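The protein record filed here:
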Amino acid sequence: LVGREPNRSAVVTNVTETHLHSMFEAMAELEGICARLSAERMTVDERRALELDHRGSMRLVHSGAEEEYAAHNTEFHTRLYRGAHNDHVFEMVTQTRARLAPFRRAQFRLPGRLAKSYEEHDQIVTAIIRADAVAAGQAAYSHVAIVSDASAVFATAGE
């Protein structure tokens, strides 16, 4: 991450485990909001596209295509953010996601993580398709909490 102070140059900063945890905690809340609002606000076409894209990602899981799945994962989460139909929340969640991107991508190197991610996404998609806002929010929050734990393995490895 890069820190910037007024009238000073940018400086690469170290991310402490505490700060990383706080960013993931905020991300879990924001993703929960997005999933909940998506369950309430997504159009029929948006729900269909989310489900089809999600189902299509199973081939990436079966082939162990980490890079391709990481790209799919970004698209999947962006669909959730857009599906919330709230520009301010979209701005906050995409900014937070950008700061966490290196840590989130690392998780896919863990054995079995692609399949687990797919299963977690499946819970989110199922709840959104059913318009179950509470279940969608809880599933998205839990998903990011699991991602936080998986990503922390790599973030703290160098400490």
Observations:
- The first strand starts at residue 2 and ends at 3.
